[in-house]
Amino acid sequence: MRSFYQPTLGIIIGNRDFFPDRLVAEARAELIDFLKQLQIKPVMLSDADTKLGGVETFAEAQKCAALFRDHAREIDGVLVVLPNFGDEKGVAETLKLANLNVPVLIQAYPDNLNKLDVVNRRDSWCGKISVCNNLYQYGIKYSLTTKHVTSLNDETFKKDLLDFVAVCKVVNGLRSVRIGAVGARPTAFNTVRYSEKILQRNGISVTTVDLSEILGNANKLTANDQSVKDKLEKIHAYTSTGKTPGDKLIQIAKLDVVLREFMEANALDCTAIQCWTSLQQNYGCNVCTSMSMMSENMLPSACEVDVTGTLSMYAMQLASGSPSALVDWNNNYADDDTKCVLFHCGNWAKSFLPDIQISTAPILGTTVGTENTYGALDGRTPAMPLTYGRISTDDCKGIIKAYVGEGELTNDELKTFGNRAVAQINNLQGLMKYVCRNGFEHHVVMNASKTAGILKEALENYLGWETYVHE
User: Domain L-fucose isomerase C-terminal, which positions (predicted)?
Assistant: First the structure.
């Protein structure tokens, strides 16, 4: 279930004694209304706590930092507002003392050409540079607005702030994400190998479970168990079952029950599952339907035990607020060098598949028997926005690296099976050279959004991961 999320920002309003104080009071009142409209909860000093609720002196910085520490569990990021030049040390000291380790956005008000006299001038253009200089000296990471100075009612700032909130979600989410690895990596898929130690060093935990445990627990369930009956109802509500036999639907439901229990028992945010060929040979169905339902419900699930693939799905989900899908960079599209076919057996979230139905996996069926592949989904993704990308551990360098970019999904004709889409990407050939030369996987993640900038800011600036943005 998707639930309403209200972001919380710590607010620092800078002030400087020889600039007009009233600008601070005006900005504070304007800011409260502005954040209310955007449904963002502020944590900020009152005008009774400090002079007009601003931060200038070290004593005021201490008060603001204490307030932030009291609300540390709530605060997703910090917005610094400069209605005048502001005291750069006051801002830096507040952030240092609060020690929140969250993203910081610096906003500065523009001056009016007709009000550059002593009683009206802001000089925030200059003050913002000084604040950033101090944060740089203190080693505090920060984000900038599109325009160097911008009023709150400027549409570009509204977008900047909403993008910043998304950056906060990505950064804070990835620093504590918990991933479930179900089963062993298929031996033919060296491409999805990863470093669990590098991930853990970055706050990302992986919980493993042997596939035999999952299948064993699924086999203990029966069609009469209420949990299985409930799951069957959810499957029928989720998708057309096509020609899938009833006994296969029960198998799919039993497997889904056990996977959900595993996730809940370990407080997992996403999973990577050994989807073939042990499942088909030892249990008799595909797990694609369950993976699709999990991804649609914002619990991303990747196949072939692609742990950094599901991490990429989770990152894009955080950035956009919508489901992601793991896909193969799979085929050329005729002789069009800007287009390619994205494909997978059938585990994409329902959001990508308006014509979704449960089917089989014909390619896999050639080796394990088509009758053992029920559960794969069939459906074509129509035209929609596209953000694509991939996070990967580079064990040789001891780092986490990523690439991201934007394009479009199109309605171009495509006659095939499984989950499929056509992507159009500028300089696609250059992107493929980058992917191949830098040792990235054949799996990539797609999301119906335009969030590459948000992902770059979160992954590179705040998490320190080497990130390439394809233009």
Answer: 342-469
Instruction: Say which CATH class 8-173 falls into.
Output: alpha beta
Q: Would you say residue 159 has pLDDT above 50?
A: yes
- pTM higher than 0.85: yes
Q: Report the alpha-carbon distance of residue 229 to residue 250 in Å, rounded.
A: 8
- pLDDT tens, 97-144? 999 999 999 999 999 998 888 878 899 999 999 999 999 999 999 999
Contacts of residue 240, Cβ cutoff 8 Å, sequence gap at least 6: 356, 357, 358
CATH superfamily of 178-470: L-fucose Isomerase; Chain A, domain 2 (3.40.275.10)
- Separation between Cα atoms, residue 312 and residue 105, nearest integer Å: 24
Mean pLDDT of 397-402: 98
Domain ranges for the chain, please list them: 8-173, 178-470
